[in-house]
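Troubleshooting entry. Yesterday's outputs looked truncated, so today I'm pasting the complete records for two proteins to confirm everything comes through intact. If either block looks cut off, that's the bug. Protein one:
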Amino acid sequence: MQRISMANVLDIFKTNFGLSLRNNLLLAICYLLLIPIIRGTASLDAVRSAECLEQSVTLIGIFLIVPLNAPEQSKAIQEIIGTKKWPQWLILFVRLIMVLVTLIILTSIFAGIMKGNNCTFPVIPYVTGTIISELALGSVGFFISVLSNSVIAGYLTSMGYFLFNFLGDISSKSIFYLFSMGMGNYMEKLWLFLLSILLITIALICEKRKKF
């Protein structure tokens, strides 16, 4: 296998930003701009702030993570993959890094705006917890998307997971619960983080073994 240089990786970053992230990033930003209109983000206490972050902001994890392998689900692009120097699993890994950095930036900015609007909450724990929930929500759909080669199936899985949490079908004591910050529980976030890493790892391994 040909050695992958730093120049190759940087080239992947530049190419894949436009291919798999740019449009989804614009969608995520537009959605975040709607949240203050839909539910308000000013003068919230710690519980209400947690609800805003976990029940609204976390949805950007679906927008950004689930469709990461969408471009390759086109037959025309699948044929091109075989001619590239870089394996597809590595391209997806680089995209995941790009998305993680994007989630950190977007969530931090949104939390900063909430603080500027007199919301009361511990910034670092809440931002970290929100990012983990975003990662968990997105990685479930990404996993299904890779295995089924269907982004639609990935979207439906992530939305189903969110709705099960939102409607109370998943217990607040479950390790799969997305909205634990408002109750001051962070152990669930550790489990969600581990679940995300597991699902992403399995998805990348499956992608590595695929033959287009």
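Protein two, checking that the full record survives here as well:
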Amino acid sequence: MTTTSSDGPSSGAVISLALVILGGLAIIVVLAGQLRGDGGGPLEALELTVELETVVDGLDAPVLLAGDGSGGRYVVEQDGRILLLAADGTTASEPFLDIRDRVLHQHERGLLGLAFHPDYEADGRIFVTYSRSPDGATVISEFGRPEDEGQREDTERPLLTIPQPYKTHKGGMLAFDRDGMLLASLGDGGHMD
């Protein structure tokens, strides 16, 4: 993520940030910082203070922290669970979605992406991408709100299935663009084992 002033990149601070997940701990790292004036030269040294704060612990291979557009935050775990994250850093007692029985969690494979419908509050659909057990094919599926006493897991509707013969180089990011189109990152297909 790059942050610039409203005057454009040539007259304001440019700071690049990256989110790094190490052993279940999410850390924001400042990659680069630079100040430029109207002449393009450096103005002064940029002082930054970075503090680390644990948001949640006890996770198993988290790959994504996502929001639903209304303030809800969700953690995607590679083994096939999505957990609702409370404001106090705890997770709900029951997973928001648990498809571990369908997910091949091995090497770079697993539950890798989550996107909420642009009008999630009214629509209720979520979209995920995962590596299917047992063959490792990439599946992009939609899940709706469960009916009555049903489970969200029972509402799956696969949208796209792509064979993946290798176990590495998997993508998984899902996002909606401004036109409401679902975009998916699939990786480059891997290499010979």
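Both blocks look complete. Sanity check on protein two: The first strand starts at residue 2 and ends at 3.
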